[in-house]
Write a structure and sequence with these properties.
Elements: H1 15-50, H2 54-57, H3 59-82, H4 84-100, H5 102-107, H6 111-138, H7 145-171, H8 181-203, H9 211-219, H10 234-255, H11 257-262, H12 270-294, H13 300-320, H14 323-337, H15 340-349, H16 356-365, H17 369-381, H18 390-414, H19 423-433, H20 442-456
Length: 457
């Protein structure tokens, strides 16, 4: 019988240890942001080099995001048993291994080799996502979980536009427009970055935050959601559906952005389009940092609902907007996508207690949606790239329904929220105001707090 991991909660860490842990884990977001940024550009580049269709080029997305669907559940089980740090080592190892094998794939010009390597990288990154997203989300007050994760993932965005920027200067210029010479060197550098990070994590003392420690913190104030089995954690399960739909939509938008701008018929070539795509990623990144600021004050579910409605509207605008208008709407769509993934993650994994790592694995598994949407869009894009953007609209609509559902649920239970709330701290204050330290159930405490509120009014 395996002994339980000794752990702590983010609230129990000193300021120095908290900052160290936060900075170190945040560095991981830059790692896979760079890989993801290159992926969308390679999609268009391989169409030219290998003479494949837009639909065939989406095999890269199928491999990358399909790996999340397959591997994320195993990663969460592993980390629940052995901890975040060992999971990070496994993730970085797979990431470096996949990147190294890009070299022979480029040397012998085998598209199937690139697809296989991309799958291995995806397995590594899914492991890192389970670890890093979950770790940042629980590393401190629940009130600021969405803000913390948006801030950390902002560095993923910084790396995401670096990839297309590199591609616009070297992949599509001169002889590199029809060769793979530069690709192999870039991915050797990526492999080296993974090795360096793995060594740094080996020598670093990373505090372990366990589900049992989080559960104890919740139970002290009467939040007992995790007493129910995992299959009854409906907010998390529906969060997986929302994340699958959203990531599928986001990936589909990015996968054909270069093709979309070229096919608008206003004289934009692939090199220029790749550069514009990097500016789209900059817009996305700026939006994420702005979102992190807003989430310090506004309720995450409410803000996600607003951004969700914007995404659905602007995705339709991209579908029917001609020329420069369509490209402008595409930039706006990237801005409103910015906060969606981390907010869905934090909403779906909030107050899971002992189920935290398993829930994190399920939500990261939702990244697998990126494997299904691009082929569906690619089939339409082979005939009309602009009209194919109706496919992402469906994903944004599903995400918006989830966000609005949480807003309605919160309003029914405790009143409409505009401001972000730390439920644990709030419940402690409520218990003190009610003159009790007993572990009161969620429903009973909500009723008592409601009564006190009505009396005050």
């Amino acid at each position: 019988m395996t002994s339980k991991l000794a752990g702590t909660t983010g609230a129990q860490l000193s300021r120095g240890r908290w900052l160290f842990a936060f900075s170190l884990v945040t560095s991981l977001f830059f790692t896979w942001g760079f890989a993801y940024g290159l992926l969308d550009v390679l999609n268009a580049h391989f169409q030219e080099v290998f003479g494949i269709t837009k639909l065939q080029s989406t095999l890269l997305q199928l491999a990358y995001f399909g790996a999340y669907f397959v591997f994320a559940p195993f990663a969460s089980i592993f980390m629940d048993r052995y901890g975040y740090k060992k999971g990070i080592h496994i993730g970085l190892g797979l990431y470096s291994l996949g990147a190294i094998f890009f070299w022979p794939s480029a040397k012998f010009e085998r598209y199937g080799g690139f697809v296989g390597c991309t799958f291995i990288i995806g397995c590594g990154l899914s492991t890192l996502e389970v670890a890093a997203n979950s770790y940042i989300a629980v590393l401190g007050s629940p009130k600021y979980a969405a803000a913390r994760l948006n801030f950390s993932q902002g560095f993923q965005g910084v790396a995401s536009f670096a990839g297309p920027m590199i591609a616009s200067r070297w992949f599509f210029v001169g002889k590199n427009a029809t060769s793979l010479d530069t690709v192999q060197w870039v991915y050797l550098a990526v492999a080296g970055l993974g090795v360096v990070l793995n060594i740094l994590f080996y020598f670093c003392d990373l505090p372990e935050i366990t589900g049992d420690a989080l559960a104890d913190e919740m139970h002290e104030v009467g939040i007992t959601n995790d007493d129910e089995p995992f299959m009854k954690q409906y907010r998390c399960i529906f969060g997986w559906v929302a994340q699958t739909a959203y990531v599928g939509a986001q990936v589909a938008v990015a996968s054909f952005a270069v093709n979309y701008m070229v096919d608008q018929g206003i004289g934009i070539d692939k090199s220029h389009a790749s550069q514009l795509f990097s500016y789209c990623q900059i817009t996305f990144t700026v939006g994420r940092f702005i979102g992190a600021g807003l989430l310090n004050y506004l309720d995450p579910a409410l803000l996600l609902s607003i951004y969700g409605f914007a995404c659905t509207a602007f995705s339709l605008g991209v579908t029917f907007g001609p020329g420069k208008t369509g490209i402008g709407l595409l930039f706006t769509l990237f801005f409103f996508e910015s906060i969606c993934y981390p907010v869905i993650f934090t909403l779906a994994t909030a107050n899971l207690g002992k189920h935290t790592k398993r829930g994190s694995g399920l939500i990261v598994m939702g990244v697998g949606g990126g494997a299904w949407y691009p082929p569906a869009q690619g089939a339409i894009a082979n005939h009309n790239t602009r009209k194919s953007y109706i496919v992402p609209f469906t994903g944004f609509a599903a995400m918006t329904i989830y966000a609005v559902g949480i807003v309605v649920s919160q309003s029914i239970r405790g009143g409409f929220r505009v401001r972000a709330v730390d439920e644990i701290a709030q419940r402690k204050q409520h218990q003190e105001a009610l003159g009790t330290t007993e572990k009161t159930s969620d429903d009973d405490l909500d009723k008592k707090v409601g009564a006190v509120y009505v009396e005050k009014v």
